[in-house]
Fold this protein.
Amino acid sequence: MYDNYIFDLYGTLADIRTDEDKACLWAKMSEVYTSMGAAYTPSQLRRTFRRMEEESKMQIQRDAAVSGQRDVLAEPDLTRVFQRLFQEKGVACDRQSARMTAIFFRALTRQRLRVYHGVKETLTELRARGKHLYLLSNAQSDFTRPELELLGLADCFDGIVISSEEGCKKPCGAFFRRLLERYDLNPADCIMVGNDMESDIAGAVNVGMDSLYLHTATSSHSGGVYRPTYLVMDGDWGKAADILLERDL
């Protein structure tokens, strides 16, 4: 029935748990910055990081408004924030150094990362049937692309669209349209698979795309005004796979 299968990542294909609030995280990051000449106390670093993150969001929103885009939900590139943190203290920092800082930060925050049982088999079978698979993720590129390698999913997709690279995120139509236009996809030939009613399902419905909602441990809630085409409420990827594969028969 569908030619194109579009997947959310976190909470849909993979279980991840992170904690950006723990004190030891900011203490370690303070050590990194200070040892490289950019002296911050842990509290200063955390406060400055959050300020710069908000400034980046506001700039994206302003730029979108100037260009006439009214449905953009801003998603900043946090690697630029890590870079600015060095530069604010007068320390030169190129993109690669900032990227390595971002990867280290993410590794410190990460408490769990694993693929749900049955995911790889389902993706492999869909590709064997000649289907096209895409990833549409609200995420930071320099967090997510390394994690796709760790999960063994990096080569599973025909296209990967990540919000920090685009400056916008689900559920805004602009983000979905980037995927559709970039890969010349017809929404009628697509299904969105995700675990969030407000971003995955609402966004898919708004661009005329069918959807499958998979309720997992990290799903916020299952309510909302939008209704998915298919529904799996117990987090069973086997049931989701049956729907996806049967729809192809």
Q: What stands out?
A: The mean pLDDT is 94. The chain is about 50% helix and 15% strand.
